[in-house]
Amino acid sequence: MQDFPREANVYLKDTRHVKILFGLCYPSTYRAGMTGLATHLFYSLLNGRPDTSCERYFRFDVPSPFHSIESRRPLRENHIVGFSLTYETDVVHMIQMLELGGVPVWARERAETDPIVIVGGPAVSANPEPFAMFVDAFVIGEGDQAIHDITEVVMESSSRQHAIDTMAELEGVYVPSRPRSAIRRLVMRNLDEVFHPTRQVVPDVPPGDRHEPVFGRALLVEVTRGCSHSCKFCLVGHICRPHRARSLQTLQNIVSRGLHETPVAKVALIGSSLGDMDQLEELVAFIVSGNHEFSVPSLRADSVTMSLARMLVQSGQRTLTIAPETGSQELRRAIGKGLDDDAIEQAVSIAAEAGIKSVKLYFIIGLPGETHDDVREIPTLVGRLYDISHIRMTVSVNPFVPKAHTRFERYPQPPIEEIRHRLRIVQRGIRDIPQVQMESLDPRLARVQAALSLGDRNMAMVIRLAARYGGLGGWRRAERESGVPFFSVANNGDRLSDELPWSFIQV
Q1: Which end of the chain is more exposed for a tag (fewer CB within 10 A), N or C?
Q2: 432-466: b or e for each residue (b if 16 or more CB lie within 10 Å)?
Q3: CA 421, CA 2: separation in Å to the nearest integer?
């Protein structure tokens, strides 16, 4: 790829002077991978070790998915290949990268000279079982320290199998080839004591380029981890507890050092529950006072204030993102959202008054207990919000996907035709509201996500074939050829009473 951009802050080590070669893989686009803080975190952590060379691999929009960005190191030449699996469906891209890179896809077929394949991320921290046949070891939970432990195990082991067997003894590491026992999720309790990357890789690209990260040229700063609200459907609220925040002083130090070491003028604040940080406005004021911009991915509606909205506008952020989840206040309370209509209306009103140009609203349909009347409340709420603000709105309506470890893990997903019917109810309801557009996830893709979220090792052959065929049609063909009832997992009544595949994971 001739137009691949130059990057600032890349590590390129002389491999003659290191002991471990680590391939850090993100099985999706370069843009998505470089938007995630995990990529920057582990890249910095590993290259901060004098004994390790860590180089990056991506599935799409790079010169090669099986040669590193830094030196074109072949994927299979690494001692460890580590994947971050944020979304379940990216497992097909993971398998494609392994196969293209000459690494046996099935864990049982790997030999002494093959790299050890490690996988972490929220998808596998909730339920690693659908992916177990492809992986040598999983990191369950937060891998800030585990990545060092794993690296040292591999460096000190006498053989590949010895290293894998030793990993099984590490806290929070799950080795599928070993007899299964309870695995406790790793949690970093005090974020002020946790390493934060300040020397971050930034591509030199113009705004709008396909290689530009989602937040633009920005320093990513992790403000919080976890969420204090624990909505019944939400994976983060269940597997990332407890809610933790860095102190204001620590965050100011990270921002100051990061803006010195990374050639950007913008700070992107990261966290699933940013509004719960007591001193968020003070942090934002600190950034703005240094003539720097900032952005936030989303805010809980009841945390939006006029001063915060005005600073967003001053920083050039044009869109405010909030998640009402449902148009019905009663259903919102039933699912644990705890957010009333007044708070949502006030947030949108503040946004409009402050000069924000558009609002993005996230809704879920097909939630347990939802009725068609509840669905009709979505366009009703959107209409009220427009009447209040006359602001441009994007309404994102996505099907409910049951997730492991949530309080809705045993609830079935509605049939695909029913989901489509509910989407049509919303479409008809909003079509006459000015400046409103709707986007949604294909219900078939939501069914795939649910199967991978809830499945067990029987999913392995379906995944393997789907990676070969590609696309939604590939999943149908894989189900047919494997004989595994993949698309019925999400609404299989037997699943509601049987032992769940992820019961050994302690979150």
Answers
A1: N
A2: ebeebebebeebbebbbbbbbbbbeebbbbbbbbb
A3: 46
What's the CA gap between 8 and 267, in Å, rounded?
A: 16
Tokens of 307: 């001063």
Q: For residue 19, what are its two tokens? A: 């002991």
Q: Is 125 helix (H, G, I), strand (E, B) or coil?
A: helix
Domain architecture of the chain: domains with CATH: 7-184 (3.40.50), 315-451 (3.30.750.200), 456-496 (no CATH)
Please give the share of the chain, as a percent, with pLDDT higher than 70.
99
Q: What is the pLDDT of residue 2?
A: 57
Q: Which helix (H) or strand (E) holds 380?
A: helix 372-389
Q: For residue 129, what are the CA distances in angstroms to 124, 296, 410, 445, 488?
A: 8, 34, 17, 20, 17
Read off the pLDDT band of 496 (50, 70, 90).
low
**CA distances to 52, 91, 216 from 44, in Å:** 11, 24, 20
| pLDDT band (50, 70, 90) for residue 274 | confident
